[in-house]
Amino acid sequence: MTDITQPAPTTPLRLRSSTPAPAVSVLLPFRNAARTLARCLDSLLAQSDSDFEIVAVDDGSTDEGGAIAGNYAARDARVRVVSQAPLGLVTALNVGLAACRGRFVARMDADDIALPHRLARQREFLTAHPEIDLLGCLAEPFPDPENGGGKLSPGMTRYHHWMNALRDDADIKRGLFVDSPLPHPSFFARRAFFQSLWGYRDLPWPEDYDLLLRAAERGSVFGKVPEVLVRRGDGPGRLSRTDPRYRREGMFRAKVNFLLRGPWLKGGTENGAREIVIGGSGTSGRLAARLLTKAGARVRCFLDNRAGPPGRRVMGLPAHGWPDEIPAAFFAQHRDAFFLSCIGEAAGRERLRSHLERHGFIEGKDWLRFA
Q1: pTM score, two decimals?
Q2: Model pLDDT for residues 336-349, shown as the tens digit of each residue
Q3: Partners of 142 in the beta sheet?
Q4: For burial by CB atoms within 10 Å, which of 70, 95, 279, 328 has the most?
């Protein structure tokens, strides 16, 4: 089985300043964000808690974004601009982290809006809950005409409805292999947390999702302020829509990598690894099977929530299907396998969950939601 890792970077250079360190550093990387940057900065400078700095990292902008950030810095000492060649988001994030002086670091994207109490509420919450390592908040999407958006996409609406329902550590971790349960611009943590993970990594999947999975892997505790504190602009110009790393395959690459690194497949009879039964042979199920097989895992079969002809095969593997009750004999036959739920349709996902639990399969031990 493969394991994609990346060497830890050297200790980042700390920038010195003669002014006292603020409580919170807002890490704000941007490139060519002239249309939305002023709106974002205005929302941050209007925070109810003024004990913060904004570390705005200009990743080689060719529009007026750099000048806009510079004008804000000239007017308000809390805004600090760090400029670099266009080296990419991950480098900008790590350069920004090295420049952050606050005890806490809050992430922000240039096309999003912070509500007035965002920094105060997250700082209060994290201070009151010292056991939490990484904190998020509820987020509200809005159609962003500045980024070419005229209305909210159904996918963005579904994601935020799902994500906002996950509020404590247990729920967040149960959703961790479905999608990112904490949106990146809601991240709020002690600076030492980011330093202990050596910042962000540049891999073929989203850098924020990678950080979440690495944090969970080492036992970090997640939390979420149960209030909407960030508004997220949705439009076709958003990086998550233009960079292939943020699409389905990029997310699944991360899931497969961390699944194979973790404890879930250990204890099988062949080479010490459990074989996998994939629930759902649609787009997500086939993608998971392809990536798992390529990484050296053994996929045993597919399980569909619809009937198929006898002997049906998908990708050369048996594809079993029942429209109603899944026979107990099927679960008995595959009791030694690990199940991944990749069913896209909500009723089908719930049906598979109900069957698995009824037959003694424990979520997080014998099966995971993968879509």
Answers
A1: 0.91
A2: 999 999 998 889 99
A3: 233
A4: 279
